[in-house]
Amino acid sequence: MTFRRALLCSIVVSSVAVFLAAIARGNGPLPGVEISAGPAQMSAAAIDELKAKFRRPAAIPFPKSNPFDEKKKDLGRTLFFDPRLSVTGTVSCASCHNPNLAWSDGLERGVGVTGIPLPRRTPGIVDAAWLTALMWDGRADTLEQQAALPITAEHEMGMPLDVLTKRLNEIDGYKTLFEAVFPGKEINATTAIAALATYERSLVSNKSSFDRWIDGDELAIAPAARRGFVVFNTTGRCNKCHSGWRFTDDSFHDIGLRSEDIGRGKFAPPSVTIMKHAFKTPSLRNARISGPYMHDGSIKTMEEVLDHYEKGGKLRPSLSPEMKPVKLSRQEKDDLVAFLETLIGPPLAEKSPELP
Amino acid sequence: MRVIRTLIIACVVVLSCGPAYSAEHTLVMHHMELEEVTAPVRAGDVIIFDNRSDMTHNLYVIYSDGTVDNLDTQVPGMQRKLTLRVAGPAVIKCWIHPIIRLEMEIGSQDTPPAP
């Protein structure tokens, strides 16, 4: 064997060894090939087909009744961060939907002007422009309807809308801001809420590594996360409710928590069993950093969330038929968590504005 | 003879008092969409709601007079029947998935079927 041939052989052998070692370390197979995640398997073609369902939309849907306007958005931002919208002047929308806490508050249950814990956890509001039902129980159809609810709720901001109108009219700086957006119109709750809703619609999650993977960058997420994506959509059954690019079906399910709160059941006839204890599926974007979890904040960590779904929830007539116990290996759970971490995007660059 | 004549008259009366026309239609559910029923529907017609999606639905019909018929839970593959009660515009929605919505015009029971 010549020296050159020996060198070539050693290069080939060491390359194969490095490749095998990479797989053994968990770097996994090369992109574009079949992914096997324990019992869950999916061909490359099936994964490509599935990925199409998670593509982000091109534009924010603003309603014709409240079209986008840059100045309206800016006014909405100012109102959103202004504690004078609450009866005590101490709680703003941003107090509970805090940009530094994934637009929630990190609490099990929210706290408003009275200091009494609210019945439910504060949901995040990013990507709210696409919501078709708002609030945990879906009692608002639009952001315009929704925005008035926490402002007027006794234990949230406790502000009657007529008092809100009077207070905003007393602040000179708001006269200029409202006139620029709504020329000739009076300052009232309707115009204030239109601005708030426009601002909320403008809060769109930044692209995460998952989105880059969906866009075609095969190396944007690690093999463990790619395996987690397969588990998510197969044996884990997560996609039964957490579907689409926002990872929610915007629908209502009883997932078998111990809470006595009947949720959407309050708005359905008693004969509609399936709506008892049903709550809206929350988005999973940024979920890893926005615990505690569930509508009542009863689950502290994502690992416990997975345990809950593995057990299948409390058996009762209203339990969603989509809730079925699943058996996940340690590896599959780790892969799922790795996948969920790819849904964390850079935070929105929103700062508290100067108040008038 | 008189008895037979009375029976014939009774039969004619009973038949003429029943629904003038009634038909059966199938409404298919695909994922989060309801396939429109193409033929005109009338009060008294029966709709077969056929869940061919991969998810559970719970549809309900809101009639023009504000009354509601609830279809109860339908797992994938299940069919449920409903006789339409009230003529006028109606909306079919799903309790679980509020995004599902189908508007329908229910004709009067006396309206003859389309040719």
Portion in beta strands of chain B = 35-45%
Q: Name the CATH superfamily classification of chain B.
A: Cupredoxins -  blue copper proteins
Q: Main sheet of chain B, how many strands, which sense, barrel?
A: 5 strands, mixed
Give the neighbour order of strands across the main sheet of chain A.
Answer: 1-2
Q: What does this protein look like?
A:
The complex is a heterodimer of chains A (356) and B (115). With 356 residues, chain A is mainly alpha-helical. Chain A has two domains: 25-57 and 207-341, Cytochrome c-like domain (Cytochrome Bc1 Complex, Chain D, domain 2), CATH 1.10.760.10; 70-201, Cytochrome c-like domain (Cytochrome Bc1 Complex, Chain D, domain 2, Orthogonal Bundle). Chain A contains twelve helices and four strands; from the N terminus they run αββαααααααααββαα. The N and C termini of chain A lie far apart (84 Å). Residues 12-33 of chain A have low confidence and may be disordered. With 115 residues, chain B is mainly β. Chain B has one domain: Immunoglobulin-like, CATH 2.60.40. Chain B contains one helix and nine strands; from the N terminus they run αβββββββββ. Chain B is elongated and about 60 Å long. The model of chain B has no long low-confidence stretch (mean pLDDT 85). Chains A and B meet through strand 3 of A and loops of B.
Key traits:
heterodimer; A: 356 residues; mainly alpha; Cytochrome Bc1 Complex, Chain D, domain 2; 2 domains; two-stranded antiparallel sheet; 12 helices; B: 115 residues; mainly beta; five-stranded mixed sheet; 1 helix; 14% helix; 37% strand
Q: How does the SSE layout of this entry go?
A:
The complex is a heterodimer of chains A (356) and B (115).
Chain A: H1 3-25, E1 35-37, E2 40-42, H2 44-51, H3 70-80, H4 93-96, H5 143-152, H6 161-170, H7 172-181, H8 189-201, H9 209-214, H10 223-233, E3 252-253, E4 279-280, H11 302-311, H12 330-341
Antiparallel strand pairs in A: 1-2, 3-4
Helix pairs in contact in A: 3-8, 5-8, 10-12
Chain B: H1 2-17, E1 24-30, E2 33-34, E3 41-42, E4 46-51, E5 59-62, E6 68-70, E7 79-83, E8 88-94, E9 101-107
